Amino acid sequence: MKTNSLMIAAFTLTLSLSACQNNASKTETDHSSMDSNDMDMGSMPMNSGMQSGMDKMMNDMHKMEMTGNIDNDYAMMMKCHHQAAVDMAQVELESGKDDELKKMAQNIIDAQKSEISALQSFLDNHKNPEKNYDPVAEKKGFAKVMDQNMTMMMDMPKMDGDASTDKHFVQMMIPHHKGAIMMADGFVQFGKDPGLISMARKIIADQKMEIEQFKKWSE
Prior knowledge:
Blueprint: H1 5-14, H2 49-63, H3 70-95, H4 99-124, H5 141-154, H6 165-190, H7 194-218
């Protein structure tokens, strides 16, 4: 992500990206080595669909050009973030066994595909937006929110490599949802567009509820 050169350098050194194929276009990935003490999706198999979805999100965010407009940059980032949730939920539908989690996965797909469409429509209608923040000023305002969100996503907890697809789904979605909530909460503070602010509030409410459902499943 170009809002923070130091973060990008750390990301490039620590994150080993696996290829992920979906309906989006293919992107080049960084195959640099990963130290065992750095970011680690745990001992999950490198061909895991869950990890592929997360890796693709991180790669896309890393390469994203910020516009300097809070609304547009939030819409771009949340759209990318949502796509990772859709990709991981699709893996759960295809390979998971638990009916409750598969129902949650379908709900996530339905809700977030709808929001992805709304975010894309917003972007399509807001070309060359006026700049209203400095994307590289990562110590203040919305840039700080985005920097903290990326740092959080890079510091994901270790996954259990021997766990089932169901458990992987829960382990990945809880921190992923927390990242979305952090980003949406920051946007509610600094955003300008009423429609996007309303969507951000809905994201916060929906994903807090889903986190609680995931935690209950894990008990």
